[in-house]
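Input sequence (561 aa), recorded before submission:
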Amino acid sequence: MNVEGDLVQGGWLSAVGLEGEVREVGLLQVLTGSHAVRRLDVPVATMLPALLRQLLLPVVLDALGAPRSRRDWGERFGRGRFSPSEVDQLTHYLTDRYGRRFRVFDVERPFGQVAGLTAISGDVKPSTLLVPSIASGNNVPLFSALSEADHLELTDVQAALWLLHAQCWDTAAIKTGAVGDSQAKAGKTTGNPTSPLGQLGVIVPTGRTLYETLLLNTPVLPDGLDEADRPQWAWDERPASLGWKSPASPEWSARPAGGLLDLLTFQSRRIRLIGEETEQGVRVRQVVVCAGDRLAQTPEREPHTAWNHTAKPKAGQPPRRPRRHMSGRAAWQGLGALLALALPEDGDGPYTSVLLRQIGDLRADELLPADYPLGVETSALEYGNQSAVVENAIADTLPLPVVSLVAADDWLRAALLECAEQADRSGRALDGLHADLRRAAGGDALPRDRGERPSARLLHTVDTSMRRLLAGLRTIGEDYDQLERAQHAWELTLFQAAVREADALLAAVPARAVVGRTEKVNGKEVVFRSGKAAGVCRKRLNEILPRAVETRTAVREGSAA
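Predicted structure, token format:
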């Protein structure tokens, strides 16, 4: 980028082409050429939703408008690229209309920042404050290569990326008080929540090209965008009657999102990057990060999360709350939430994201082909110590058959959920075997929060097979025979992996487990022996995986004949 950090023309985005080539391009080039870009190469998985939400999607939506119907969406998708008139609109938007507002180091109006932002104390913080994986303040990752005393020199490109990331994922708790912030007390602000995406389990559908990914993340809005709904770089066009503070000032508001554009570009922090001219170009070693706007509640229009639906919420709480991802679980283990296309009929339960439901509707209207290679990227950060530190990052990529998202046709969806449940139940059967063998050997069952469990090893073993199954079923169309063959192969794979794990557990127990021992369980005497435990586990696996049993029986009968 140039001295002013021009996001529109400067080469700061790493775009991976259809043949795998990587080019450094600016915002205008990556959008107008998005049909020739497979994906963006980002430093961490949580950066993709930050780029989509803070920049790419709102630019496209504001410049071209949202599709008003699924047919309108389908026409855009069918073209496979922006039309010449749309390219002209994007070019006008990013050059003539708002070009100067996309300059990171502009003196008067730096992008996504507050010009001249100063801490009440006069202090500045190291640039590590923007990067969750590097130690800074209370946030001290276990394997951080730097301490707070070290200096991290961010290039202009890196600084721009981490600026967007901070607006989406920054930690909570105390923030530096800014000069001009009337709500700062004793040089600080308290009660700051995490940035908006930190409260979600993010789900981003992806396509074959960046153009398709942008469309897959574009909700259909029958009434279009609200005229008062503006992105952060056009904050001065918002009606003054709203009474909201300008994101270009140290003041902030606790408020709802004013619409989709406001939600996507929500400025949860007031930030200033302090750039320094060096022989290598502009470098950012210091920043000022202060409190920003607080999102009163995640609105149901939020496109990038699944939900937990509560039939009878407590007073003052909404019926739907964002669903977070669980650490240590692959995305396919959460298929029950990803494929929950309808609200739970009775009681509480998951409800999938707006965008995945829309993709199912588009397929039902035949605006997406049945064999479309849909991908889903999930990401989240886990926070600790009152959400003031980052403890873990969660990220996964999953192939997903679009046919499974059609609400009116549940045959494939039911099969996928059955496969995921079989893996989970088989893992629990192995955990039961492990607990019984420990008791038979004279010990106690493993506490729930300690040690590695056989189920975790099993799920890791079959992870590649499940992903291969999902990828293969994306091209299934309505071939029921292919689905049945795929389920047979899956059950055999799962059965063989479970048996290997069970054999390893049995081989590791001492000889005294054969004799076993007797314990009182719920007032009754129960005998624990290794042979009995193995028989119970095998019986459970046979119940869970009937197709595998059928196939193995047929093989034995064929061999005998």
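Checked by second reader. Residues 45 and 141 are 17 Å apart (CA to CA).
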